[in-house]
Write a structure and sequence with these properties.
Oligomer: single chain
Radius of gyration: 22 Å
Mean pLDDT: 94
Low-confidence stretches: none
CATH class of the largest domain: Alpha Beta
Shape: globular
Distance between the termini: 70 Å
Largest sheet: 7 strands, mixed
Strand content: 15-25%
């Protein structure tokens, strides 16, 4: 019996999330895939082993569990192949290592995730790769930065913490015209709200730790690739010797089933709080691309099908003292890294490493991960934070 998603153009996203990647009738009718723990795989005979002509060769190269998640992500991304790795940062580092060598030039958007920048400034630089950061607002001017040695253009949309928007198609086309591979960190949007390969990007990167996992209890990453880039990506993964654990893959498969329902709830709550914060006297600016007031709003509307639960706002004046008072007064919003789980989180953003996308001058930047709690409770919690600032005097 065929899987309901064999006809890839028949069903909408929420249906595909439920059925993609695994056909229950291929495993006794159980609706969830098996969790296969494996290292050694036995071959039926020496000739088969010599030819490596077997469904599975070794646990590192994949199991039915990881295959099911890779297939589901390919279905969602429209990709030719996906690799799984143990973290979102690994999903960034593996493709960079796959497509860069000594003497190459790598262009990286300046609003990139901080650990991405750290990887570029340390390991890539020690490898002899020249890393150059560019202004997210550069647009078609990116063409002027391309060199004969440019091999990778690394994007993130929206920008990390400050949510700058870019024209993805323009930048992907510039990279391809210059014989470079384009990669994008697509964690904020998930494949439900943005399919980068549809805009000409070669590699779509996710921290599956976030919304796909959804419950703040796994570490996992993925890279989904075009047909032209997949083989080299997979080879690099195997050369480094890294893959995902079956339990984490299974939990992510389970998380995908409810991701759209959760993501829409995050979206509604975050937008409501962002709109409320826009009118608050203690706020200088709200950095949320779905707000019409946001400078990149038109680009967001043209490219994205929704907004997730992560955004920032700028306090109106003050510094670390005021930011600490605000954060320490919160009781529902936890103080922690990561996002995409069921719980709300807050932190002060550090933008000191930026070259072009500089920190706002009005005051500290507070990033919110809006979880699945009652929105009125969350609003009251944030109001307590503003009251704590006022109490400083």
């Amino acid at each position: 019996m065929s899987s309901p998603t064999d006809n890839k153009h028949q069903f909408r996203a929420s249906t595909r999330l439920i059925h993609a990647g695994y056909d229950p009738h291929e495993y006794h009718g159980f609706v969830n895939p098996p969790v296969v723990h494996a290292s050694t795989v036995l071959f039926p005979d020496a000739a088969t082993m010599r030819r490596r002509d077997h469904s599975y060769l070794y646990g590192l190269r994949g199991t039915p569990t990881t295959d099911a998640l890779e297939a589901a992500l390919d279905d969602l991304e429209g990709s030719a192949g996906t690799i799984l790795v143990p973290s979102g940062l690994a999903a960034i580092s593996i493709p960079l290592l796959a497509f860069l060598s000594h003497g190459d030039h790598c262009l990286v958007i300046d609003s990139v995730y901080g650990p991405t920048r750290h990887f570029c400034d340390t390991l890539l630089t020690r490898m002899g790769v020249e890393v150059e950061y560019f202004d997210p607002a550069i647009g078609a001017g990116l063409k002027d930065l391309m060199r004969d040695t440019t091999r990778v253009v690394f994007l993130e949309a929206p920008g990390s913490n400050t949510f700058e928007m870019i024209d993805i198609r323009v930048m992907a086309d510039i990279a391809r015209a210059g014989n470079a591979v384009s990669m994008i960190d697509n964690t904020w949007a998930t494949p439900l709200f943005l399919r980068p390969l549809d805009f000409g990007v070669d590699l779509s990167i996710h921290a599956l730790t976030k919304y796909p996992g959804g419950h703040s209890d796994i570490m996992l990453g993925s890279v989904s690739a075009t047909a032209a880039t997949y083989t080299r990506l997979r080879e690099a993964q195997m050369q480094i010797g890294i893959n995902a654990a079956p339990d984490d893959a299974y939990l992510t498969i389970r998380g995908l089933k409810t991701m759209e329902v959760r993501l829409r709830a995050h979206e509604r709550a975050a937008l409501r709080l962002a709109q409320w914060l826009e009118g608050h006297s203690g706020v200088a600016r709200v950095l949320h691309p779905a707000l019409p007031s946001f400078p990149g709003h038109d680009l967001w509307k043209q490219q994205f099908k929704g907004a997730s639960g992560l955004f920032s706002f700028v306090l109106d004046g003050g510094g670390n003292r005021e930011a600490d008072a605000f954060l320490d007064a919160l009781r529902i919003f936890g103080l922690g890294y990561s996002w995409g789980g069921f719980e709300s989180l807050a932190l002060q953003v550090d933008l000191s490493d930026r070259l072009f996308a500089k920190a706002p001058t009005e005051g500290p930047v507070i990033r919110l991960q809006v979880g699945l709690e009652d929105v009125d409770d969350l609003q009251e919690d944030l109001e307590a934070g503003f009251a704590a600032i006022s109490a400083i005097g």
